[in-house]
From TrEMBL:
<comment type="similarity">
    <text>Belongs to the ALAD family.</text>
</comment>
<dbReference type="InterPro" id="IPR001731">
    <property type="entry name" value="ALAD"/>
</dbReference>
<dbReference type="GO" id="GO:0008270">
    <property type="term" value="F:zinc ion binding"/>
</dbReference>
<dbReference type="Pfam" id="PF00490">
    <property type="entry name" value="ALAD"/>
</dbReference>
<keyword id="KW-0479">Metal-binding</keyword>
<keyword id="KW-0350">Heme biosynthesis</keyword>
<dbReference type="GO" id="GO:0005829">
    <property type="term" value="C:cytosol"/>
</dbReference>
<feature type="binding site">
    <location>
        <position position="122"/>
    </location>
    <ligand>
        <name>Zn(2+)</name>
    </ligand>
</feature>
<feature type="binding site">
    <location>
        <position position="314"/>
    </location>
    <ligand>
        <name>5-aminolevulinate 2</name>
    </ligand>
</feature>
<protein>
    <recommendedName>
        <fullName>Delta-aminolevulinic acid dehydratase</fullName>
        <ecNumber>4.2.1.24</ecNumber>
    </recommendedName>
</protein>
<feature type="binding site">
    <location>
        <position position="207"/>
    </location>
    <ligand>
        <name>5-aminolevulinate 1</name>
    </ligand>
</feature>
<feature type="binding site">
    <location>
        <position position="234"/>
    </location>
    <ligand>
        <name>Mg(2+)</name>
    </ligand>
</feature>
<keyword id="KW-0627">Porphyrin biosynthesis</keyword>
<keyword id="KW-0456">Lyase</keyword>
<comment type="pathway">
    <text>Porphyrin-containing compound metabolism; protoporphyrin-IX biosynthesis; coproporphyrinogen-III from 5-aminolevulinate: step 1/4.</text>
</comment>
<feature type="binding site">
    <location>
        <position position="132"/>
    </location>
    <ligand>
        <name>Zn(2+)</name>
    </ligand>
</feature>
<dbReference type="GO" id="GO:0004655">
    <property type="term" value="F:porphobilinogen synthase activity"/>
</dbReference>
């Protein structure tokens, strides 16, 4: 006997792999994961995104092929981002009946009808200035942008999108979109709101991926990363406006917020592991500093444990194709 013998011994439940599996409290599954994809119009070739090793812009003409491959790997859902060659001051291509937003949903749903298609609903990839809406004298005009978000939502729903996913961070966007969808007869089209979206520097690589023209930042519409109460309030407002699911974005640095919202709302809750989170893991692994696969599973597992039902992750396809999940 050693001099001190603990009475409480949590290690008893960790002795064997079977015990560890039996007493594991949260589980990751492919059912929880959704894959964000970048689709570029008017080009022939895939384009590597340097800041996101392993992620490519998909040429629109290869989207049908890719969506089949994604479905075959076992992924249930994609979030579509377009790289537009038709930008203007308002981002009007986004609400054209045959614009890129509409075509992405149409191609995905016609190719794989059971794929859950979420249409990222914003303007930053479609505006010449890269902001998420219409500019006015003092920044982005909230209410003018709401009208355009409604138009974009209807066009995406008409093209078959299962979810409208507003990420423009405008006040009232969920209510405006719900109203526009219902008025057009799309009462069954759901809203995946980016309800708590921080003005985060973790979005850095996305700006290259999506080719946004932004100079400056989005701090007048996206949230201050230092604010906890406001983060909860933003999601509760979207719940009250009729969102079908809430979201926290980014994920890894905001697990406390994820837990806070989980405890305050019974709606499904998503988390978005963003481009910078992906890049940090990829580059650290490439440098030999960490084991990529294990860190990916640990980071996604932590997001799940914190309270996410759905996780958007650029790692989803790799995990699915290699049968890790
Ligand atoms: C813009 C949008 C962004 C992301 C998703 N939608 C960028 C931003 O808000 O600046 C970021 C995704 C990522 O970094 O992976 N509507």
């Amino acid at each position: 006997m050693s001099e001190y013998s603990p009475v409480l011994r949590p290690r008893r439940l960790r002795k064997t792999p079977s015990l560890r599996a039996m007493f594991q409290e949260s589980e990751l599954s492919l059912n929880d994961l959704a894959l964000p994809i970048f689709v570029e119009e008017g080009v022939d070739d895939y384009k590597a995104i340097e800041a996101m090793p392993g992620v490519m812009r998909i040429p629109e003409k290869r989207l049908a092929y890719e969506i089949e491959r994604i479905a075959k790997a076992g992924i249930r859902s994609v979030m579509t981002f377009g790289i537009s060659h038709h930008t203007d001051a308002t981002g009007s291509d986004a609400w054209q009946e045959n614009g890129l937003v509409a075509r992405m949903s149409r191609i995905c749903k016609e190719t794989v009808p059971e794929m859950i298609v979420m249409s990222d609903t914003c303007f930053c990839e479609y505006t010449s200035h890269g902001h998420c809406g219409v500019l006015c004298g003092h920044g982005v005009d909230n209410d003018a942008t709401l009208i355009n978000l409604g138009k974009q939502a209807v066009v995406a729903a008409h093209a078959g999108a299962d979810f409208i996913a507003p990420s423009a961070a405008m006040d009232g966007q969920v209510a405006a979109i719900r109203q526009a969808l219902d008025a057009a007869g799309f009462t069954d089209t759901a809203i995946m709101s980016y309800s708590t979206k921080f003005a985060s520097s973790f979005y850095g690589p996305f700006r290259e991926a999506a080719g946004t023209a932004l100079k400056g930042d989005r701090k007048t519409y996206q949230m201050n990363p230092m604010n906890r109460r406001e983060a909860i309030r933003e999601s509760l407002i979207d719940a009250a406006e009729g969102a079908d699911s809430l979201m926290v974005k980014p994920a890894g640095a905001y697990l406390d917020i994820l837990r806070d919202i989980r405890e305050r709302s019974d709606l499904p809750l998503a988390a978005y592991q963003v481009s910078g989170e992906y890049a940090m893991i990829k580059f650290a692994a490439q440098a030999g500093a960490i084991d990529e696969r294990n860190v990916v599973l640990e980071s996604l597992g932590a997001i799940k444990r914190a309270g996410a039902d759905v996780i958007f992750s650029y790692f989803a396809l790799d995990l699915a194709e290699n049968k890790v999940l």
